[in-house]
Amino acid sequence: MGDFADVTLAHVPLAATLVHHGVRAGIGDSWMTLSEWVEQNGYRFAGPYREVHLIGAARSLRQRRTLLLP
Asked: Would you say which domain of life the source belongs to (predicted)?
């Protein structure tokens, strides 16, 4: 395993979030769904996205990731 860094992320007062269940190959569809929701509901992107890996190994079918668009 590689090295890990302990970082503190900047506070985000408002973000659209979505939990992606499944393998990484399908995550593009989840990002598109989240992006479309942001635009359809009158919000605008206000910073870099975040992707938080919650559980699961890289090749597991039981992965979950939280996607955040500030």
From this structure: Bacteria
Q: Give the tokens for residue 46.
A: 């206000």
The CB-side HSE value for 39 (13 A sphere, CA atoms) comes to 6
What is the rounded end-to-end Cα distance, in angstroms, of the chain?
A: 30
AA letter at 21? H
Structure token digits, residue 65: 């990731």
Tally of domains in the chain: 1
Cα(19)–Cα(12) distance, rounded to whole angstroms? 17
Q: 10 lies in a domain? A: no
Tokens at residue 9, please?
């992320």
* Segments forming the whole domain that contains residue 33: 22-69
